[in-house]
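Students often ask why we bother encoding 3D structure as a string. The short answer is that it lets us treat folding as translation between two languages. Here is a chain of 386 residues written in the first language.
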Amino acid sequence: MTTTKDRAFATVKEMGRINAFFPILQRLGNRWAASRPWEGRRIGLNLHLTSLTACLVREMTLGGGEFVVTAASPATTDPGTVDYLRGEGLHVYTGGDMQNRFLQALDHAPEILVDVGFELIATVLDQRADLVPSILGAVEVTRSGVVQLKKRSNLPFPIININDGRLKNAVENRHGVGEAIWQAVTLLTGMHLSGRRVGVWGYGPVGKGLAAYARAAGMSVEVIERDPCMRLLAHYDGFPTPEANDALTRIGVAVTATGSPNVITAEHLKHAKDGIVLLNAGHGGDEINVKSIREVASREDHIAEQVVRYALAPGKRVTVLGAGHPLNIVLNSGSPEPVLLHFAVLGLATEALCKNTYVPGETLVPPEIENQAAMFALEALDLVAG
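And here it is in the second language, the structure alphabet:
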């Protein structure tokens, strides 16, 4: 039987492998251990709880302060990471006790917030306004979170937007997700990618990376994009840009990267060819409406871990990977480097908030923070002679 200690130890070993080849966070940890930027502060982190996150949190705790952690999604929560963080004395809330994990974290009255998806920040604004006077600021990491952020007016504290900086989209979204998704598909299914026909829903930074890495793997790529400008860019990048229903008649793999719900539903799949494989690369778990597929399916076969095949009609089968959640995060796949880079930006932005020099409202991540992170990345790459 696998114990809590066993799971935590497995996470520690994985953290060692990650840091051995790209020690960017270790170098930042040395800096934070010397400067102690969070001494006497309470930090609330809402993140996907993977071994990569464990690497970040371990180094941040060297900088003093009290840390409380919430799981961004149960589907992207690694039990070993939870066990490790709790073993280090951190408060970690996953919602597994049927409680609101965000409210539980906010009971610790954090003064700085870090969020993916604007959920922890929104909980403060909507349900714990009493905490606002003591909050120095927040950091939002994701595109979906920034979309929600921009819907708010009169924000009472500064929120640093990392997603729209120079590095997040160009490195983590494009190269990190673009590479990781296809590694995850091969790992789960055993499919050889070359010669497969794929449809990429959305041509933002993630979609561009998915299309480029799919093409590099020998796949035939079509891009489905509603925005006319982005559709034109996909065309000039050399990708066919059909309408969704037309593409579904040909493609064998469909991947969503739009940030919008219900991009693919059971209704859309009436046009799909038999055997199509569906997966999501967006932040949330609702771009593929798996519930609608399950409701109309006559049969559901769990053919492998994170691989479920549905029979929708005679001669029509659909396979969903990762239950429609972001597959690269579910499997913690791909190169750690892009994720660790944006974690470095996250850490440096959190450090900057302690100086309390930002005005309330949205603030684009300052160039000096990204420049610092880039220098740390270049030094880390040089250390391992990459």
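Translate back mentally: The chain is about 45% helix and 20% strand. Keep this in mind for the problem set.
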